[in-house]
Amino acid sequence: MSDAPDSPAGPLYRIRHSLAHVMAQAVLEMREGSTLGFGPPIADGFYYDFILSEPLTERDFPDLERRMRRILKKGQRFYREEVPVDEGYRRLEEMGEPYKREYAEELVGKKGLESLTFYRSGPFLDMCDGPHVDTAKEIPRDAFRLRSVAGAYWRGDAKNVMMTRVYAWAFADKQALDEAVRAYELAQERDHKRLGRELDLFTFDDSVGRGLPLWMPNGTVIRDEIEKLAVELEFRAGYQRVATPHIAKSSLYDQTGHLDHYRDSMYPPMEVVEETPEGETVRETYMLKPMNCPHHHKIFASRLRSYRELPLRLAEYGEVYRWEASGAVSGLLRVRMLSMNDAHIYCTEAQTQDVFREVISQYDEAYRILGLSNYYIRFSRWDPEDPKGREKYVDAPEDWRRSERIIADLLEEMGVDYVDAPGEAAFYGPKIDVQFQTVTGRDESLSTVQLDFAVPPRLGLSYIGEDGAEHVPYCVHRAPFSTHERFVALLLEHFGGAFPTWLAPVQVQVITVSEHFHEYATGIVSRLREKFVRAELASESDTVSKKIRDATTRKIPNLLVVGERESAAGTVTLRRHGVKAQATMPLEVFEAALLDTIARRTLEFVMP
RNA sequence: GCCGGUGUAGCUCAGUUGGCAGAGCAACUGAUUCGUAAUCAGUAGGUCGGUGGUUCGAGUCCACUCACCGGCACCA
Predict the structure, then answer these.
(1) Once rounded to an integer, what is the mean pLDDT over residues A50-63?
(2) Confidence class of residue A5 from pLDDT cuts 50, 70 and 90?
(3) CATH code for position A149
(4) Residue A185 falls within a domain, yes or no?
(5) Same domain, yes or no, for A489 and A590?
(6) Is the minimum distance from the CB of A569 to strand B below 7 Å?
(7) What are A529-538's pLDDT values in tens digits?
(8) Which of A270, A423, A488, A594 has its CA 20 to 30 A from that of A278?
(9) Chain B positions with any atom < 7 A from a protein CB
(10) Of all nucleotides in the shown strands, which has a C1' nearest the CA of A540?
(11) d(CA A386, CA A392)
(12) Is the pLDDT of residue A608 over 70?
């Protein structure tokens, strides 16, 4: 049995779990008549869910923490009690714990338990499987801290009541707590929303609408650079670029199945009414596209296709619109206008694995260039048990099994470690998602590769096979850079706003020591701009110190300081962001190294 | 969508028990031309998120609403 701190047998797990009970005890003291949900240990601490008799806010935290410490000081013991099921039920009813009572019944039903386990500590009694510490003396009084209060549905189901969840940090000692809190605070400084404002990358405006980002010039540079990279990777892999409208008739989405399975995520239809010269009224409804695939499918369908054309790779730098739930919208991570470097690859069933392999290796290449490694692979499958099955997925069990087999075999063959995720499939097929964590610890899907068996037949897509007969193609959907919104958010947090030179909105800033060197400096700027380098001259009415400070705050990767020495010798003094050492070199030498680092998209600019 | 919190100048934030809306930074103007993280002086900047209400009087109290933040649900 493992004794890792976060495994159930480990001491930290017991401390966190027991602290959850102590917190619940304190909450029940403060809010008599409240009832309990679940209160498990989690990474960094624990939480407990309550139905509160009176609301609790973060303003109550000092009081709540004080009560918890008082309880800990008493050093009460934790007693395990096993009681027969019927007595357990009676207890829970007497305790006035309807949710625990409901759960107990489910446990008994599913696991065939003959007894229920309770833990008693002081006046607090809770149905709980443990394990716990033996006595509260084992719990350090200075290594926990209440963190936030949040809402959470009972059993994680939106149809159930909303409980109040109190989150807390908890560790084995004060130092570990302080470190975690400090790390959290540092992470806040890397939050993409904050950096986006500080670096002038994007903004939102109430009068434009929620979740609709406005990209500023600086942010647009980053989008454009990512797109350039995508265009290159795709060109080499034989993709062909297409462009399609942002809207389509709603009848298209009826055919594809979007209206059946995806309607909630779509903006409502717009109705256009036209009068014909004959006085007839013609009504048509259009919808904003939530995905590019239907349009691409129509390009595929525009003429007869031969197996010789497959795999046919259609790529589009397109914007799609999704009606995200209001509470889900968040910065650039969840938006209602999504920019995607999207592509659809039409292929035969036999080609599918190769197509997936090709796409995955392209992802590896893109992540390598950007130095991204903090992600994991998720195999998102159909869940036949999903109660919302009809609503969520196309109903074709055999196709699901077949398509999932193709992906599972491939993952197996490639030796990829992945998390199995039933219930996370797209409505039209299984997919491989790349998951990453934001600096604030939220898990988000990034890139995705999806196998679509459902929509091509619905739209009657076909190609003529070697046998001269018509066949329905598979379609592989892929978006290596997620949405540009989410991807820029990830990059911002990943680089802490200090982008490598090739991505930086301003790549070089020239700083004059005094305005006597204006001419030399503007010469450098225009020479670099001639080579498409994003170079700028710093304001000349400030002191050198001020200009350095401003450029540093803006995290500009390369500063060139020029004064008497440089202008006389035709050199520049290079100051790199975050690097103390400076070097003076001929302008041509700097320029060559700069153009090289940009062309190769290196993460580090190695000085000549 | 749900639970809770928060909205004061471009940004960060003050604003007593209801009584004339403030600071720093940024911006703008002028002076300064300076060798590595903030030169000096001045000017301008606001329907206190919005609407309605209570009041002699509302940034402050009440109702509704919008947006944002922390979560849950949903998802790229």
Answers:
(1) 90
(2) very low
(3) 3.30.980.10
(4) no
(5) no
(6) no
(7) 999 999 999 9
(8) A270
(9) 1-5, 11-12, 30-39, 66-76
(10) B33
(11) 9
(12) no
Which stretches does DSSP call E strand in A322-462?
337-347, 375-381, 418-422, 431-437, 443-452
The Cα A406–Cα A476 span in angstroms is: 12
Summarize pLDDT for A190-217 with one digit per residue, the tens.
Answer: 999 999 999 999 999 988 999 999 999 9
**Domain boundary residue, one of A177, A199, A230:** A177
pLDDT above 70 coverage of chain A, percent: 98
What is the spatial distance between Cα A72 and Cα A140, in angstroms, rounded to a whole number? 8
Quote the ipTM score: 0.94
Domain span at residue A133 reads 11-177
User: Tokens 């892929």 belong to which residue?
Assistant: A478
Residue range A25-40: average pLDDT?
94
Q: Is residue A204 part of a domain?
A: no
Query: Are A447 and A434 within 8 A, CB to CB?
Result: yes
Q: Identify whether A205 is part of a domain.
A: no
Q: Which residues make Cβ contacts (< 8 Å) with residue A257, sequence separation at least 6? A: A394, A427, A428, A454, A455, A458
**pLDDT above 70: residue A7:** no
Cβ atoms of residues A489 and A332 within 8 Å: yes
Q: What size, in residues, is chain A?
A: 608
Q: Is the dihedral of CA A8, A13, A15, A20 positive or negative?
A: negative
A336 touches strand B (CB under 7 A): yes
Measured CA A516 to C1' B45 distance, in angstroms: 34
Task: Kindly compute the dihedral angle of the four CA atoms of residues A254, A260, A265, A268, in this order, to the nearest 10 degrees.
Answer: 50
Averaged pLDDT score across all residues of chain A: 93
Nearest nt by C1' to A552 Cα: B37
Q: Is the CB of A566 under 7 A from strand B?
A: yes
Asked if residue A593 keeps its beta carbon closer than 7 A to nucleic acid strand B, the reply is no
pLDDT tens across A544-570, in order?
999 999 999 999 999 999 999 999 999
CA–CA dist A382, A552 (Å, integer): 49
Give the pLDDT score at A8: 65
